[in-house]
Amino acid sequence: MNTYPNEVPVIGKIYGLYKDFYGYSVLFPKKDKYTLGIKIESYMISTLELMLSAQSAQRNEKIVFIRQASVKFDALKIFIRLANELKMISDKRYITLQNQLQEIGRMMGGWQKSLN
Fold first, then answer.
1. Assessment of whether the complete model's pTM goes beyond 0.85
2. C-alpha 115: how far from its chain's center?
3. Is the predicted pLDDT of residue 36 greater than 60, yes or no?
């Protein structure tokens, strides 16, 4: 994983999550790749963008971006669970993604808590 000196660690984790999911998404059936697969990718990218915005925002504005990212992230978790239940993602790959999602969620929550 590429990290930059001033990068908030959670951003690197989301970056890694996207890379892993991207590798899995190429195995999706064509119809699923262009529906739920695109939706999952879109929410991952949106979460990443919002966390990047939080990283560069003034302290009093960071919380707004983190809350927005949290909403996207919660939906993302549901979409990934749905992809597993519909057998687009194997159980093994789902567990890998789920572990990453849990770690990212803790990091986002910790950052949000530190700003309150």
1. yes
2. 21
3. yes
